[in-house]
Amino acid sequence: MARIPLLVYERGIFREAHLEDLREAVYMLVSTIPVGKVATYKCIANILGVSPRLVALVLKENKQPIVVPCHRVVMSSLRVGGYSMGGSRVKERLLSIEGVTVRAGGVSESSVLDECRVGSTKGRRKS
């Protein structure tokens, strides 16, 4: 399958997106996740048309975890995954403080944004 470039519309023209554009888009989406809810790396990736691993790499470099609440992004398996600001235990604690039910390293299905639930088409790009 051919790679389709991510495009950005700027000053009346389309251009291929750069890493900084992707970073901005990921941060913007993550910033909209409400307190008490989580999204998955895969859901964010589907919206942007990129790999979930790329989303994870962008969030790993987040220097403003209060402004961009990357702890609200979890794995598709609903395991919390890593957290560069203190490890998975810190991530679990932050989510718990915000009202997310965390059990055995994972979050409850009820904490996942509706757009990111398995079977939902809201968080998927149309082909």
Automatic annotation (TrEMBL):
PROSITE patterns xref list: MGMT
Tree of life domain: Archaea
Ranges of residues in domain Methylated-DNA-[protein]-cysteine S-methyltransferase DNA binding: 22-100
Any one of the GO BP annotations: methylation
Keyword check for Cell membrane: no
DNA repair listed as a keyword: yes
One Gene Ontology term of the molecular function aspect: methylated-DNA-[protein]-cysteine S-methyltransferase activity
The reaction(s) this protein catalyses: a 4-O-methyl-thymidine in DNA + L-cysteinyl-[protein] = a thymidine in DNA + S-methyl-L-cysteinyl-[protein]; a 6-O-methyl-2'-deoxyguanosine in DNA + L-cysteinyl-[protein] = S-methyl-L-cysteinyl-[protein] + a 2'-deoxyguanosine in DNA
One family name in Pfam for this protein: DNA_binding_1
Alphabetic keyword roster: DNA damage, DNA repair, Methyltransferase, Transferase
Name recorded for this polypeptide: Methylated-DNA--protein-cysteinemethyltransferase
Species in which this protein is naturally found: Thermogladius calderae (strain DSM 22663 / VKM B-2946 / 1633)
